[in-house]
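Q: Hi! Curious about what 3-hydroxyisobutyryl-CoA hydrolase looks like structurally. Here's the sequence.
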Amino acid sequence: MQRLSRTRHLLHRCPENILKEFTRRTSSTLSTSINTPLSDHPPITDPDSAVLVQHNACSRTVLLNRPSFLNALSTSMGKRLQKLYKNWENNPDVGFVVMKGRGRAFCAGGDIVSVYDMIREGNIEGCKDFFRTLYEFMYLVGTYLKPHVAILNGITMGGGAGVSIPGTFRVATDKTTFATPETLVGFHPDAGASFHLSHLPGYLGEYMALTGDVLNGVEMVACGLATHYSLSANVAAIEDCLQNLVTDDPSVVETCLQKYSDLDYPSNASVIRRTDTLNKCFSHDSVEEIIDALESEAGKTNDEWCNSILKKLKYASPLSLKVSLRSIREGRFQTLDQCLIREYRMSLQAVAGQVSSDILEGVRARLVDKDFAPKWDPPSLEHVTQDMVDQYFSPLSPLEPDLDLPTKQREAFM
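A: Let's find out. The predicted structure is below.
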Protein backbone atom coordinates (compact mmCIF):
# COMPACT_ATOMS: atom_id res chain seq x y z
CA MET A 1 0.00 0.00 0.00
CA GLN A 2 2.98 2.31 -0.51
CA ARG A 3 1.16 4.11 -3.34
CA LEU A 4 -1.76 4.96 -1.06
CA SER A 5 0.46 6.36 1.68
CA ARG A 6 2.24 8.54 -0.89
CA THR A 7 -1.01 10.15 -2.01
CA ARG A 8 -2.66 10.58 1.38
CA HIS A 9 -0.20 13.29 2.38
CA LEU A 10 -1.78 15.53 -0.27
CA LEU A 11 -4.68 16.14 2.07
CA HIS A 12 -2.43 18.36 4.10
CA ARG A 13 -1.80 20.69 1.17
CA CYS A 14 -4.03 23.05 -0.17
CA PRO A 15 -9.44 23.34 -4.66
CA GLU A 16 -11.94 24.73 -6.53
CA ASN A 17 -15.62 24.91 -7.08
CA ILE A 18 -17.19 21.98 -8.88
CA LEU A 19 -20.76 23.03 -8.15
CA LYS A 20 -21.69 23.16 -11.82
CA GLU A 21 -20.31 19.70 -12.43
CA PHE A 22 -22.14 18.41 -9.34
CA THR A 23 -25.44 19.91 -10.45
CA ARG A 24 -25.09 18.49 -13.95
CA ARG A 25 -24.36 15.02 -12.64
CA THR A 26 -26.78 14.83 -9.74
CA SER A 27 -29.71 16.19 -11.72
CA SER A 28 -29.60 12.87 -13.55
CA THR A 29 -27.91 10.76 -10.91
CA LEU A 30 -30.25 11.36 -8.01
CA SER A 31 -33.22 10.76 -10.25
CA THR A 32 -31.72 7.38 -11.05
CA SER A 33 -31.87 8.22 -14.73
CA ILE A 34 -35.62 8.65 -14.86
CA ASN A 35 -36.94 9.28 -18.32
CA THR A 36 -40.60 8.83 -17.40
CA PRO A 37 -42.96 10.37 -14.84
CA LEU A 38 -42.65 9.05 -11.30
CA SER A 39 -46.00 7.33 -11.58
CA ASP A 40 -44.55 5.26 -14.43
CA HIS A 41 -41.51 4.22 -12.42
CA PRO A 42 -41.46 0.43 -12.93
CA PRO A 43 -41.10 -1.83 -9.90
CA ILE A 44 -38.41 -4.48 -9.87
CA THR A 45 -40.32 -7.71 -10.24
CA ASP A 46 -37.28 -9.89 -10.91
CA PRO A 47 -34.40 -9.23 -8.51
CA ASP A 48 -32.49 -12.09 -10.13
CA SER A 49 -32.12 -10.02 -13.30
CA ALA A 50 -31.18 -6.88 -11.35
CA VAL A 51 -28.39 -8.75 -9.52
CA LEU A 52 -26.45 -11.15 -11.75
CA VAL A 53 -23.76 -13.57 -10.61
CA GLN A 54 -20.70 -14.91 -12.41
CA HIS A 55 -19.04 -18.05 -11.04
CA ASN A 56 -15.26 -17.88 -11.30
CA ALA A 57 -12.43 -20.27 -10.38
CA CYS A 58 -12.46 -19.35 -6.68
CA SER A 59 -14.66 -16.28 -6.48
CA ARG A 60 -18.03 -14.84 -7.32
CA THR A 61 -18.62 -11.64 -9.28
CA VAL A 62 -21.81 -9.72 -8.55
CA LEU A 63 -23.11 -7.43 -11.30
CA LEU A 64 -25.59 -4.71 -10.32
CA ASN A 65 -27.67 -4.83 -13.47
CA ARG A 66 -30.04 -1.90 -13.56
CA PRO A 67 -28.14 0.46 -15.85
CA SER A 68 -31.08 2.61 -16.96
CA PHE A 69 -31.54 3.54 -13.29
CA LEU A 70 -27.80 3.81 -12.58
CA ASN A 71 -28.03 0.53 -10.66
CA ALA A 72 -30.09 2.08 -7.87
CA LEU A 73 -30.76 -0.44 -5.09
CA SER A 74 -34.24 -1.69 -4.27
CA THR A 75 -35.52 -3.75 -1.36
CA SER A 76 -35.66 -6.89 -3.47
CA MET A 77 -32.09 -6.38 -4.68
CA GLY A 78 -30.94 -5.96 -1.08
CA LYS A 79 -32.62 -9.22 -0.06
CA ARG A 80 -31.04 -11.10 -2.95
CA LEU A 81 -27.62 -9.69 -2.14
CA GLN A 82 -27.97 -10.68 1.51
CA LYS A 83 -28.90 -14.25 0.59
CA LEU A 84 -26.04 -14.61 -1.88
CA TYR A 85 -23.39 -13.16 0.42
CA LYS A 86 -24.44 -15.24 3.41
CA ASN A 87 -24.31 -18.43 1.35
CA TRP A 88 -20.87 -17.57 -0.02
CA GLU A 89 -19.46 -16.68 3.38
CA ASN A 90 -20.08 -20.26 4.49
CA ASN A 91 -18.97 -21.84 1.22
CA PRO A 92 -15.34 -23.08 1.29
CA ASP A 93 -15.24 -23.02 -2.51
CA VAL A 94 -15.68 -19.23 -2.56
CA GLY A 95 -12.48 -17.39 -1.68
CA PHE A 96 -13.57 -13.80 -2.26
CA VAL A 97 -16.33 -11.67 -3.82
CA VAL A 98 -16.20 -8.94 -6.48
CA MET A 99 -18.96 -6.36 -7.01
CA LYS A 100 -19.34 -4.13 -10.05
CA GLY A 101 -22.06 -2.22 -11.90
CA ARG A 102 -23.28 -2.29 -15.47
CA GLY A 103 -23.23 0.91 -17.52
CA ARG A 104 -21.95 4.30 -16.47
CA ALA A 105 -22.57 3.76 -12.76
CA PHE A 106 -21.34 1.44 -10.09
CA CYS A 107 -24.40 2.35 -8.02
CA ALA A 108 -26.07 5.74 -7.62
CA GLY A 109 -27.53 4.76 -4.25
CA GLY A 110 -30.85 3.54 -2.98
CA ASP A 111 -33.86 3.90 -5.25
CA ILE A 112 -35.04 7.28 -3.98
CA VAL A 113 -37.95 7.27 -6.40
CA SER A 114 -39.42 4.13 -4.89
CA VAL A 115 -39.04 5.66 -1.43
CA TYR A 116 -40.75 8.83 -2.64
CA ASP A 117 -43.63 6.80 -4.04
CA MET A 118 -43.99 4.75 -0.85
CA ILE A 119 -44.12 7.89 1.30
CA ARG A 120 -46.81 9.41 -0.90
CA GLU A 121 -48.80 6.18 -0.69
CA GLY A 122 -48.48 6.12 3.10
CA ASN A 123 -46.49 2.88 2.92
CA ILE A 124 -44.14 3.57 5.82
CA GLU A 125 -43.76 -0.17 6.47
CA GLY A 126 -42.36 -0.51 2.95
CA CYS A 127 -39.89 2.28 3.71
CA LYS A 128 -38.83 0.52 6.89
CA ASP A 129 -38.24 -2.71 4.97
CA PHE A 130 -36.21 -0.81 2.36
CA PHE A 131 -33.84 0.82 4.84
CA ARG A 132 -33.61 -2.21 7.11
CA THR A 133 -32.75 -4.56 4.25
CA LEU A 134 -30.10 -2.34 2.67
CA TYR A 135 -28.48 -1.34 5.98
CA GLU A 136 -28.28 -4.99 7.03
CA PHE A 137 -26.52 -5.81 3.78
CA MET A 138 -24.09 -2.92 4.19
CA TYR A 139 -23.19 -4.19 7.64
CA LEU A 140 -22.69 -7.66 6.17
CA VAL A 141 -20.20 -6.20 3.67
CA GLY A 142 -18.44 -4.31 6.48
CA THR A 143 -18.01 -7.45 8.58
CA TYR A 144 -17.55 -9.96 5.77
CA LEU A 145 -15.09 -12.73 6.61
CA LYS A 146 -13.80 -13.01 3.05
CA PRO A 147 -12.06 -10.39 0.87
CA HIS A 148 -14.45 -8.08 -0.96
CA VAL A 149 -13.52 -6.06 -4.05
CA ALA A 150 -15.73 -3.25 -5.36
CA ILE A 151 -14.87 -1.88 -8.80
CA LEU A 152 -16.14 1.71 -8.73
CA ASN A 153 -15.91 2.41 -12.44
CA GLY A 154 -18.57 5.12 -12.60
CA ILE A 155 -21.09 6.99 -10.44
CA THR A 156 -20.87 5.93 -6.79
CA MET A 157 -23.21 7.78 -4.46
CA GLY A 158 -25.18 7.25 -1.25
CA GLY A 159 -26.04 3.57 -0.98
CA GLY A 160 -23.47 2.80 -3.67
CA ALA A 161 -20.83 3.91 -1.19
CA GLY A 162 -22.63 1.93 1.51
CA VAL A 163 -22.21 -1.38 -0.31
CA SER A 164 -18.59 -0.76 -1.32
CA ILE A 165 -16.64 1.37 1.14
CA PRO A 166 -17.10 -1.05 4.07
CA GLY A 167 -15.44 -3.81 2.01
CA THR A 168 -11.80 -4.81 1.87
CA PHE A 169 -10.83 -3.19 -1.45
CA ARG A 170 -12.33 -0.32 -3.45
CA VAL A 171 -10.92 0.30 -6.92
CA ALA A 172 -11.63 3.81 -8.22
CA THR A 173 -11.01 4.85 -11.81
CA ASP A 174 -10.90 7.97 -13.96
CA LYS A 175 -14.67 7.49 -14.47
CA THR A 176 -15.49 7.40 -10.76
CA THR A 177 -17.77 10.09 -9.33
CA PHE A 178 -18.41 10.02 -5.58
CA ALA A 179 -20.77 12.18 -3.52
CA THR A 180 -23.28 12.13 -0.68
CA PRO A 181 -25.78 14.75 -1.91
CA GLU A 182 -28.67 13.94 0.44
CA THR A 183 -29.00 17.38 2.07
CA LEU A 184 -29.98 18.78 -1.32
CA VAL A 185 -33.09 16.57 -1.37
CA GLY A 186 -34.07 17.09 2.27
CA PHE A 187 -32.45 13.91 3.60
CA HIS A 188 -29.20 13.07 5.40
CA PRO A 189 -26.10 11.08 4.38
CA ASP A 190 -26.96 7.51 5.38
CA ALA A 191 -25.97 3.96 4.39
CA GLY A 192 -23.06 4.13 6.83
CA ALA A 193 -21.95 7.56 5.60
CA SER A 194 -21.79 8.94 9.12
CA PHE A 195 -19.12 6.31 9.78
CA HIS A 196 -16.91 6.51 6.70
CA LEU A 197 -17.23 10.29 6.23
CA SER A 198 -16.50 11.01 9.87
CA HIS A 199 -13.27 9.03 9.65
CA LEU A 200 -11.85 11.07 6.78
CA PRO A 201 -8.88 13.35 7.52
CA GLY A 202 -9.66 16.67 9.17
CA TYR A 203 -13.15 17.98 8.51
CA LEU A 204 -13.47 16.69 4.97
CA GLY A 205 -16.34 14.47 6.13
CA GLU A 206 -18.38 17.40 7.38
CA TYR A 207 -17.71 19.21 4.13
CA MET A 208 -18.84 16.27 1.99
CA ALA A 209 -21.93 15.60 4.12
CA LEU A 210 -23.19 19.18 4.16
CA THR A 211 -22.35 20.30 0.63
CA GLY A 212 -22.74 17.06 -1.35
CA ASP A 213 -19.62 17.96 -3.29
CA VAL A 214 -18.10 15.52 -5.78
CA LEU A 215 -14.80 13.63 -5.52
CA ASN A 216 -13.16 11.87 -8.43
CA GLY A 217 -11.26 8.61 -8.30
CA VAL A 218 -7.87 10.15 -7.56
CA GLU A 219 -9.35 12.19 -4.72
CA MET A 220 -11.04 9.10 -3.28
CA VAL A 221 -7.69 7.36 -3.02
CA ALA A 222 -6.03 10.47 -1.59
CA CYS A 223 -8.47 10.61 1.33
CA GLY A 224 -8.77 6.85 1.87
CA LEU A 225 -12.28 6.22 0.52
CA ALA A 226 -10.74 4.03 -2.20
CA THR A 227 -7.80 1.67 -1.78
CA HIS A 228 -6.65 1.61 -5.41
CA TYR A 229 -6.76 3.79 -8.50
CA SER A 230 -6.64 2.54 -12.06
CA LEU A 231 -7.49 3.88 -15.48
CA SER A 232 -10.82 2.53 -16.70
CA ALA A 233 -9.00 1.04 -19.66
CA ASN A 234 -7.44 -1.44 -17.21
CA VAL A 235 -10.71 -2.62 -15.67
CA ALA A 236 -11.12 -5.58 -18.01
CA ALA A 237 -7.59 -6.75 -17.21
CA ILE A 238 -8.26 -6.38 -13.47
CA GLU A 239 -11.42 -8.45 -13.79
CA ASP A 240 -9.59 -11.16 -15.76
CA CYS A 241 -6.85 -11.30 -13.15
CA LEU A 242 -9.35 -11.61 -10.31
CA GLN A 243 -11.40 -14.27 -12.10
CA ASN A 244 -8.34 -16.50 -12.44
CA LEU A 245 -7.21 -16.26 -8.82
CA VAL A 246 -7.56 -19.32 -6.64
CA THR A 247 -7.21 -17.86 -3.15
CA ASP A 248 -8.94 -16.48 -0.10
CA ASP A 249 -5.83 -14.52 0.91
CA PRO A 250 -6.39 -10.75 0.79
CA SER A 251 -2.68 -10.16 0.14
CA VAL A 252 -2.91 -12.19 -3.08
CA VAL A 253 -5.96 -10.19 -4.16
CA GLU A 254 -4.07 -7.03 -3.27
CA THR A 255 -1.16 -8.06 -5.49
CA CYS A 256 -3.53 -8.50 -8.42
CA LEU A 257 -5.06 -5.05 -7.88
CA GLN A 258 -1.67 -3.43 -7.39
CA LYS A 259 -0.43 -4.86 -10.66
CA TYR A 260 -2.88 -2.67 -12.57
CA SER A 261 -2.83 0.38 -10.31
CA ASP A 262 -1.85 3.81 -11.57
CA LEU A 263 -0.28 6.63 -9.60
CA ASP A 264 -1.94 10.02 -9.92
CA TYR A 265 -2.42 13.13 -7.79
CA PRO A 266 -5.35 15.49 -7.19
CA SER A 267 -5.31 18.47 -9.51
CA ASN A 268 -4.63 22.01 -8.36
CA ALA A 269 -8.40 22.62 -8.58
CA SER A 270 -9.18 19.82 -6.12
CA VAL A 271 -10.81 20.37 -2.75
CA ILE A 272 -8.04 18.13 -1.42
CA ARG A 273 -5.69 21.07 -1.89
CA ARG A 274 -7.86 23.40 0.21
CA THR A 275 -7.48 21.49 3.43
CA ASP A 276 -6.45 24.51 5.51
CA THR A 277 -9.49 26.58 4.52
CA LEU A 278 -11.80 23.58 4.73
CA ASN A 279 -10.67 22.66 8.24
CA LYS A 280 -10.81 26.27 9.40
CA CYS A 281 -14.43 26.67 8.28
CA PHE A 282 -15.96 23.24 8.86
CA SER A 283 -14.49 22.58 12.31
CA HIS A 284 -17.09 24.80 14.00
CA ASP A 285 -19.80 23.39 16.24
CA SER A 286 -22.85 24.62 14.33
CA VAL A 287 -23.97 25.10 10.75
CA GLU A 288 -24.44 28.81 11.43
CA GLU A 289 -20.82 29.14 12.58
CA ILE A 290 -19.61 27.22 9.51
CA ILE A 291 -21.51 29.58 7.23
CA ASP A 292 -20.17 32.62 9.14
CA ALA A 293 -16.62 31.31 8.76
CA LEU A 294 -17.08 30.77 5.00
CA GLU A 295 -18.54 34.27 4.61
CA SER A 296 -15.60 35.69 6.53
CA GLU A 297 -13.12 33.85 4.32
CA ALA A 298 -14.95 34.96 1.18
CA GLY A 299 -14.94 38.56 2.39
CA LYS A 300 -11.23 38.57 3.17
CA THR A 301 -9.95 36.99 0.02
CA ASN A 302 -12.86 37.30 -2.42
CA ASP A 303 -12.55 33.53 -2.65
CA GLU A 304 -14.96 32.23 -5.31
CA TRP A 305 -14.68 28.73 -3.89
CA CYS A 306 -16.11 29.90 -0.55
CA ASN A 307 -18.91 31.71 -2.36
CA SER A 308 -19.83 28.61 -4.35
CA ILE A 309 -19.92 26.50 -1.19
CA LEU A 310 -22.12 29.08 0.51
CA LYS A 311 -24.59 28.83 -2.38
CA LYS A 312 -24.82 25.08 -1.93
CA LEU A 313 -25.33 25.33 1.82
CA LYS A 314 -28.01 27.97 1.36
CA TYR A 315 -29.79 25.78 -1.20
CA ALA A 316 -29.85 22.70 1.05
CA SER A 317 -32.56 21.85 3.57
CA PRO A 318 -31.78 23.76 6.82
CA LEU A 319 -33.07 20.87 8.92
CA SER A 320 -31.03 18.35 6.92
CA LEU A 321 -27.89 20.43 7.41
CA LYS A 322 -28.24 20.46 11.18
CA VAL A 323 -29.21 16.80 11.40
CA SER A 324 -26.35 15.80 9.09
CA LEU A 325 -23.71 17.77 10.99
CA ARG A 326 -24.72 16.13 14.26
CA SER A 327 -24.75 12.71 12.57
CA ILE A 328 -21.18 13.09 11.30
CA ARG A 329 -19.95 14.35 14.66
CA GLU A 330 -21.53 11.40 16.47
CA GLY A 331 -20.21 8.97 13.89
CA ARG A 332 -16.64 9.92 14.72
CA PHE A 333 -17.01 8.12 18.05
CA GLN A 334 -19.12 5.17 16.92
CA THR A 335 -18.63 1.83 15.21
CA LEU A 336 -20.20 0.97 11.86
CA ASP A 337 -23.08 -0.92 13.46
CA GLN A 338 -23.82 1.95 15.86
CA CYS A 339 -23.88 4.40 12.94
CA LEU A 340 -26.23 2.22 10.90
CA ILE A 341 -28.59 1.74 13.87
CA ARG A 342 -28.70 5.50 14.44
CA GLU A 343 -29.10 6.26 10.73
CA TYR A 344 -32.01 3.82 10.61
CA ARG A 345 -33.77 5.86 13.29
CA MET A 346 -33.01 9.06 11.38
CA SER A 347 -34.26 7.65 8.09
CA LEU A 348 -37.54 6.47 9.61
CA GLN A 349 -38.07 9.92 11.13
CA ALA A 350 -37.46 11.50 7.73
CA VAL A 351 -39.95 9.32 5.84
CA ALA A 352 -42.58 9.46 8.60
CA GLY A 353 -42.74 13.24 8.23
CA GLN A 354 -43.49 13.92 11.88
CA VAL A 355 -40.94 16.72 12.00
CA SER A 356 -40.80 17.78 8.36
CA SER A 357 -41.70 16.61 4.86
CA ASP A 358 -38.47 17.97 3.40
CA ILE A 359 -37.59 14.71 1.65
CA LEU A 360 -40.81 14.91 -0.39
CA GLU A 361 -40.23 18.57 -1.17
CA GLY A 362 -36.59 18.00 -2.06
CA VAL A 363 -37.37 15.17 -4.47
CA ARG A 364 -40.21 17.21 -5.98
CA ALA A 365 -38.03 20.25 -6.57
CA ARG A 366 -34.99 18.43 -7.89
CA LEU A 367 -36.38 15.36 -9.62
CA VAL A 368 -40.08 15.75 -10.34
CA ASP A 369 -40.89 19.35 -11.25
CA LYS A 370 -37.19 20.19 -11.56
CA ASP A 371 -37.76 23.82 -10.64
CA PHE A 372 -34.82 23.65 -8.19
CA ALA A 373 -36.80 25.90 -5.84
CA PRO A 374 -37.66 23.79 -2.80
CA LYS A 375 -39.83 25.30 -0.07
CA TRP A 376 -38.15 23.84 2.97
CA ASP A 377 -39.97 23.43 6.29
CA PRO A 378 -38.49 24.86 8.47
CA PRO A 379 -37.50 27.53 5.92
CA SER A 380 -34.25 28.68 7.53
CA LEU A 381 -31.63 27.64 10.05
CA GLU A 382 -33.01 29.99 12.67
CA HIS A 383 -36.34 28.17 12.53
CA VAL A 384 -34.77 24.75 13.19
CA THR A 385 -35.17 24.03 16.90
CA GLN A 386 -33.05 21.71 19.00
CA ASP A 387 -36.13 19.56 19.66
CA MET A 388 -36.55 19.01 15.90
CA VAL A 389 -32.97 17.82 15.57
CA ASP A 390 -33.21 15.67 18.69
CA GLN A 391 -36.28 13.88 17.38
CA TYR A 392 -34.35 12.61 14.36
CA PHE A 393 -32.10 10.70 16.73
CA SER A 394 -34.97 9.11 18.64
CA PRO A 395 -37.05 6.01 17.85
CA LEU A 396 -40.11 6.59 15.69
CA SER A 397 -42.22 5.48 18.65
CA PRO A 398 -41.58 3.87 22.07
CA LEU A 399 -42.50 0.48 20.57
CA GLU A 400 -40.52 0.86 17.34
CA PRO A 401 -37.66 -1.70 17.25
CA ASP A 402 -34.19 -0.52 16.35
CA LEU A 403 -32.22 -2.03 13.50
CA ASP A 404 -31.04 -5.42 14.72
CA LEU A 405 -27.51 -6.22 13.58
CA PRO A 406 -25.46 -9.31 14.50
CA THR A 407 -22.31 -8.85 16.53
CA LYS A 408 -19.33 -9.21 14.20
CA GLN A 409 -15.82 -7.86 14.36
CA ARG A 410 -14.32 -7.04 10.92
CA GLU A 411 -14.80 -3.27 10.93
CA ALA A 412 -11.30 -1.99 10.22
CA PHE A 413 -11.82 -0.81 6.65
CA MET A 414 -10.85 2.87 7.03
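A: A fun detail: Residues 1-414 form a domain with the 2-enoyl-CoA Hydratase; Chain A, domain 1 fold (CATH 3.90.226.10).
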